[in-house]
Amino acid sequence: MPPARPSYWPQRVFVTRDASDDALTQRVLSRLGDVEVVHLDRRADPVTETDFGADAANDASRFDLGKRTLLLTRHEGGWMERCPAGSGNLVCCNLWTVNPGEGCPLDCSYCYLQSYLKRNPTLKLFTNIPDMLSTIEAAANAEPSRLFRIGTGETIDSLVWDPLTDLSSELVPLFGRLSNALLELKTKTALVDQLVDLRSEHNGRTVVSWSLNARVVTEREEVWTAALEDRILAAARCVEAGYRVGFHFDPLIDFDGWQDAYRETVDLIFASVPASRIAWISLGTLRYKREMQQVMRERFPKSTVSLGEQQLGSDNKMRYCQPMRLRLLRFMWDSLKERSADLPVYMCMEGASSWRAVSECSSSEDASLVEIISRKGRTDGAAAEGVFLQ
Ligand code: SF4
Predict the structure, then answer these.
(1) For residue 136, what are the domain limits?
(2) Measured from the CB, is residue 217 less than 6 Å from ligand 1?
(3) Which of 173, 197, 224, 244 has the highest CB neighbour number within 10 Å of its CB?
(4) Is residue 386 one of the residues assigned to a domain?
C-alpha cells in the first residue's frame, strides 16, 4: 500500500507556462496524484494576484489559503544570497542562502513567513533546479579559497517537499563533489530515508539540522511538524549514516517551567547523538514583526507565543526585554556547554554585547566556532588543508 498522503500536501496546484515542461514539475504532479491543476499564462501569486483568492478577506485567511496551494514556477534572478540575519550590528554566522522555493506547508504559530510572505503567500517550488545547482557549483569553483556554508532552509523547510521533488538527492551529491562548500539542510520533519540512502555520496559536506524546542512548544505551536522524539531519532539515523548534524533552538520562548522543559530537550539530544557529531547549535529568542501579531492571534487563537512582556525594537520587531533574552540564552548556553565545553554554540541575531554577556568572550575568540564565524567567509588556505572539521 502506498504511504499515506501527508495532510499538509496542497489541495490545488498552479503551474506557470514556462515551468510546465520542467522535469521537477512533471515529478511533483505525478506524485501528488489526484489534485486540481490550473495553468497560468504569467507568473502571479494565485492567492493575491488572481481571482482565486478573491474571497479571502484578510491577511490571515489569505495565508491559510496559500498554505493549501502550490505554485510551480521558474525562479527569476539570483539564487545565492548572504543570510540577511547577520546585517547591521548583529554577529554574522557566515551563512549563504539558496531557496529552492518559498513558503512552508508546516504551520508554526511564530513563523516569520506570515509577515515576510504577506503579499505572496502561495507555497512555491522553483522548477529550474538545474540553474540553481549550476549557480552553486560555479560560485564555489570561482573562489576556491572561500568556504561557502550554504543553507536551503530560510524560506522553506529543506526536507518537507523531498517526497515530491527528490531535491536532496541532487543537492547532497553535488556538495559531496565540491571541496569548498558545505550544505545545511534544516528541517522540522523526520524525512531522512533519502539522506540515509546517500551515505556514500555526502562526503561529509552536508550537515542535517533540526529546529528544536521545548516539548510543549513543539506540541502546541508547531502544526504538522514531526514530534520531538522523531526529529532526534532522525538526527541519530543521519549520524549513523555518517553525517554531522546541527540543532537550532529558535525561537526560545518564555513560559512557566521553561527551564525544565528546555533541559528535557537537551537531555533527549545527548541521549541519542554524540557531541562529537554535532556541527553546531544555534540559539535565538522569540522575535517577530509587530504587524504579524494580529495574523498570529487570528490563525492560532490558542497560542501563547504573543503573550507575556515583549517590547518593540527599532527594527519594528517584538522581542522579550534584554534581561529575559539573556536569561534564556545563558541558560541554554550553559546547559549545552555542560555537556561538552567544545560544542560549537552560537547565537542568531544577537549583537556583540549579548555574546559577551552570555558566553563571556566574543564570537571571534571562541575556538569552537572556527568553522562558522571566525573565517568570515574565507577559508584562507583551509580548503587546501581539508577544509571541514569532520
Ligand atoms: S517549519 Fe519553519 S518555515 Fe515551516 S512553518 Fe515552521 S517556522 Fe515556518
Answers:
(1) 78-105+130-374
(2) no
(3) 244
(4) no
